Amino acid sequence: MQILPRSAWGAAPPKSPGRPWAPGGPVDLVVHWVGGNGTIGIQSHTDCPARIKAVQSYEMSQEYSDIAYNLVCCPHGTVYEGRGLGVQGAANGPSTNATKPSVCLLLNTQDTMTPEMQASVLELNRTVTPGTILAHREVNSTTCPGPQVYGWILNIRTQPQPKPPTPVEDDDMPRLVKCDNGDPMVLLTNSIHSRWVQDEAELNDLKALYGPVSTWAPRDFYRPVLVGPSPGPWSGRPAWWPAR
Length: 244
Hints:
Radius of gyration: 28 Å
Distance between the termini: 56 Å
Structural class: alpha/beta
Order of helices and strands: EHEEEHEHEEEHE
Number of domains: 2
Helix content: 10-25%
CATH class of the largest domain: Alpha Beta
Shape: elongated
Number of strands: 9
CATH architecture of the largest domain: 3-Layer(aba) Sandwich
């Protein structure tokens, strides 16, 4: 996901270096809004950098060392660095600033969260800030980020998550299948053909990939390329296999 740098909104340098994340962070994503009275007054995308700059200027006048948020999302779905994800934010509150990154939506009390904002928050959570999407009011005593955004967050948390697509099996892709007869032997198999491992050299190649045979789980192992000699006709158990 593209996150525009601080230079995209003309950020002033911070008054002091940011603090590193505490052990376990960053995890989850805490959603905020600007929350001023009325509307934030964004008429076009070109207005967004100035609004972020105004947030930084106000917060630095209130003894913050920088803009308080790690990230900022405008109504058009563009995500900008605030403090960035390399350091703690200062927006959530003392209990979670050190472990949970924050994103501020450029919304005031009379503004509505746009579908583009919703899509960007979900994409951030999926690709950049894994964990739970939380409203600011869930980690601190506040009404932020307003009833509409909070309701949306609760709704997405109750929706079933989409299942990842099922991989398509290729009948020509060989698999290693551990046998059930007690011998440390395997089959190289697919849905059409199967054969025993042919010799010790091939077995060593397989063990180099998957570790000792005794550690293989009783499930299929996918292996895209066979090594060793071409399979020949079955001539019985190789002499180098130990007798049971």
